[in-house]
Amino acid sequence: MGLDDPVIWILVAAVAMFLFGATKIPKWARSLGQARAEFNKGLKEGVDVKSEKRVQ
């Protein structure tokens, strides 16, 4: 019985819903998704800048 057990994750989700409410969790998920997208965009721009410096 480790963290890969689905029962544990169901219990964690139920406790999170109880503690934070059902309205906060989607907002947090949306915020995390936007942050991840910005991070990936920054990584891509960083790679583009490095490749441009090599060409010039």
Description of the structure:
Helix content is 84%, strand content 0%. The model has no long low-confidence stretch (mean pLDDT 84). It has helices at 6-20, 24-55. The chain is built from 2 helices and no strands. The protein is mainly alpha-helical. The longest helix is centred in the last third of the chain and has 32 residues, at 24-55.
Question: What's this, in brief?
Answer:
This protein is mainly alpha-helical and 56 residues long. The protein is built from two helices and no strands.
Percent helix range: over 70%
Radius of gyration: 19 Å
Order of helices and strands: HH
Mean pLDDT: 84
Question: What does the secondary structure layout of this molecule look like, with pairings?
Answer:
Layout: H1 6-20, H2 24-55
From the structure above, extract its key features.
56 residues, mainly alpha, 84% helix
